[in-house]
Design brief:
- The chain is α/β, with parallel strands linked by helices.
- The protein has a domain at 350-444: Leucine-rich repeat, LRR (right-handed beta-alpha superhelix), CATH 3.80.10.10.
- It is 11% helix and 16% strand.
- The protein contains 9 helices and 34 strands.
- The strands form 5 sheets. The protein has a 25-stranded mixed beta sheet, with no helix packed on it. Strands 4-6-8 form a 3-stranded parallel beta sheet, with no helix packed on it.
- It is flat, with a radius of gyration of 33 Å.
- Residues 1-20 have low confidence and may be disordered.
- InterPro entries: Leu-rich_rpt, Leu-rich_rpt_typical-subtyp, LRR_dom_sf, LRR_TM_domain-containing.
- One of its GO terms (cellular component) is plasma membrane.
- Residues 1-22 form the signal peptide.
- It comes from Lates calcarifer.
Length: 644
């Protein structure tokens, strides 16, 4: 039967008979045979390198199942709907296979020599296969001499006792044990891993219940990671309380861990007192571990205690985002001066910042305070941060900045989605006089003259995002009646009520001195027309967004000659004048209201001949008027015109 199948394959390949492989979609050397209700590997051409057989009903892979497919590099047998058995020597001729996926095969059965022949395999996925500790303890994986990544996510491993052959797997560096049932890890059990440097060891959601017992013998258990080092170690949701976590970290003291992740229910939470927050002794066991990144995100920490991170003598990044942090004690960051560069406190419950809050962090470069409830910045707040380059305050409740300490080296300031009022403009200039990027969208600024102020006073500003402020007027002072020399390259004035301002004849010189701007957004401004000469100062602009306005036409000379990309989607342009598009390479006209009559003829001719790339399919452009042509595509209408 197999011989007949191979004859069919060779006939199909040589004669290129259409439909010869009805069970699979074949593109070049890739065969997609997923979701085909197959009960065995189908006959396929011998050049296949990538074979996807997931979600079928294959019950067995044996030594003949993959005959003729010796070029395979990737094989996916995941999620079979019937119990799968991998027989001995099933992959004996698959030396080129680099990635094997067997995940989601509940009750997977592996015979002793199942992986013989896979000397070149680099990735093996055995997720959710109901496997027990024998997969690591016995010799199933010994033939995989080139293995780099092993995923055992979601299995039934209760005790981690790897075989000694793992010491010879020199390329192996990634192990995923997330969501297994391992209740303890001790030094004597993990001898087979000694000498390993793991890029990633994932023990997320491995509940170390036995180690939580009050009678657990920590001395006998020893250091489970002795002789190992980690680029990234994930111990999230480990089931250890604060006291037991301290003991665990002391047990692994000296283990080198570049990146340690400890997400979970750590901390007292908001309005609770029954569980402690980390204190200055919690991470004492890490003092000799050379931790560069500590990830405490997605915990329940309410207060950062004095010196809580002081054992971390080399930390460069600390992430405490998505906690319940409401209070930062004085000297909370003691011991981090000189080396901490990034601190993430986003998505917490902070309400105010004081002068002492971040005082010791002299080398901090990025501070993320976005999505808190910060409504006040105390006098001289952010003092002691001479090297801060990025400050993110998006999604807070600031009405004014008050009098924070100046940040002379700040490049990026994000104040989006606050409640900033006009009085905050001068505070920003005092506070961050050298910024290059200012995001101040979604606030309560009312005077378009603020743009003049920012561009005149902030000499290094290159990017200004000002959209969705409640602009009511444009009242210019004598000192700032026009914008002076500047370095602005990106300007976003979307949703800034420009139609109302310009229709009053106000601020028509807004762009007169913006010769460095290359990208301009004026979307959602209710613009009905563009004032003559409004863009004359934009001598370098290449990209412009005029989408979601009420434009009915464009004057031929209104657009800058340097313009290459134009977004005019969702306007009311009925008969475009193609002379306005002469400089363009990219154009978006989606959702305009075209009037299909004789006036559209020149546009239709241009549409069929132009080399301009349309950013939305031309097939979606449709007639809006007259009613008898409503929703007819412009391409169909053009064909009708030609026939007439």
């Amino acid at each position: 039967m197999r011989t007949l199948g191979l004859q069919v394959v060779f006939t199909c390949v040589l004669l290129q008979v259409p439909g010869c492989f009805p069970s699979c979609i074949i593109r070049g050397s890739v065969a997609n045979c997923a979701f085909r209700r197959l009960v065995s590997v189908p006959a396929l051409p011998p050049n296949i390198t990538h074979l996807y057989l997931e979600m079928n009903h294959i019950r067995e892979i044996n030594s003949t199942s993959l005959s003729g497919l010796e070029q395979l590099q990737v094989l996916d047998l995941g999620g079979q709907r019937s119990p799968l058995v991998i027989r001995g020597d099933a992959f004996s001729r698959q030396s080129r296979l680099r990635k094997l996926i067997l995940g989601m095969n509940f009750g997977l059965q592996l015979e002793a020599q199942a992986f013989v022949g896979l000397s070149g395999l680099q990735e093996l996925h055995l997720d959710s296969c109901s496997l027990e500790e024998s997969i690591l303890k016995e010799d199933f994986l010994q033939p995989l001499s080139s293995l780099e990544t092993l995923s055992l996510f979601g299995n039934r491993i209760k005790r981690l006792q790897p075989s000694m052959f793992f010491t010879n797997m020199t390329n192996w560096k990634n192990l995923n044990l997330k969501l297994n049932k391992i209740d303890k890890i001790c030094e004597s059990d993990l001898v087979g891993f000694q000498g390993k440097h793991f890029e990633v060891l994932n023990l997320d959601s491995v509940h170390l219940e036995a180690m939580s017992d009050k009678n657990f013998d920590w001395k006998k258990c020893g250091n489970p990671f002795r002789g190992m080092s980690f680029q990234m170690l994930d111990l999230s949701y480990n089931g250890l309380g604060m006291g037991k976590l301290k003991q665990f970290l002391r047990a692994i003291e000296g283990t080198k861990i570049s990146h340690l992740k400890l997400s979970g229910p750590m901390g007292r939470g908001f309005s609770f007192n029954n569980l402690p927050d980390p204190d200055q002794s919690t991470f004492d066991g890490l003092k000799n571990s050379s931790v560069l990144t500590l990830d405490l995100s997605k915990n329940m920490i309410f207060a950062l205690q004095q010196g809580v991170f002081s054992p971390l003598k080399e930390a460069v990044m600390i992430d405490v985002s998505q906690n319940k942090v409401n209070h930062i004690h004085r000297n909370a960051f003691k011991g981090l001066q000189g080396h901490l560069q990034l601190l993430n406190l986003s998505h917490n419950l902070l309400g105010e910042i004081y002068s002492y809050t971040f005082a010791p962090l002299t080398n901090l470069q990025v501070l993320d305070l976005s999505h808190n409830h910060i409504g006040a910045l105390g006098y001289d707040s952010f003092s002691g941060l001479p090297n801060l380059r990025g400050l993110f305050l998006t999604g807070n409740a600031l009405r004014d900045l008050g009098f924070p300490a100046p940040l002379p080296r700040l490049d990026y300031l994000l104040l989006n989605d606050n409640k900033l009022t006009p009085s905050s403009v001068n505070s920003i200039i005092r506070f961050a006089s050298n910024i290059r990027h200012l995001g101040i969208e979604d606030n309560r600024l009312t005077n378009l003259a603020d743009v003049y102020t920012f561009l005149t006073q902030l000499k290094r500003l290159q990017h200004l995002f000002y959209r969705r402020n409640t602009i009511k007027w444009c009242t210019l002072s004598q000192q700032e009646s026009r914008i002076g020399p500047n370095n602005l390259t990106v300007l976003d004035l979307g949703s800034s009520s420009l139609q109302s301002v310009w229709s009053q004849g106000k601020c028509l010189n807004l762009f007169d001195n913006l010769g460095h701007v290359v990208s301009l957004s004026l979307s959602s401004n209710g613009l009905q027309s563009l004032p003559q000469g409004i863009f004359k100062g934009l001598t370098s602009v290449v990209e412009m967004d005029l989408s979601s306005n009420a434009l009915t036409h464009l004057e031929p000379e209104v657009l800058p000659k340097t313009l290459k990309t134009l977004n005019l989607s969702n306007n009311f342009i009925s008969s475009p004048d193609v002379t306005a598009f002469q400089s363009l390479r990219y154009l978006n006209l989606k959702m305009n209201r075209f009037h299909c009559n004789a006036n559209l003829k020149s546009f239709l001719t241009w549409l069929n001949k132009t080399n301009v790339t349309f950013l939305s399919p031309v097939q979606e452009l449709r007639c809006e008027f007259p009613s008898d042509l409503y929703k007819v595509t412009l391409l169909d209408y053009s064909a009708q015109v030609k026939q007439q």
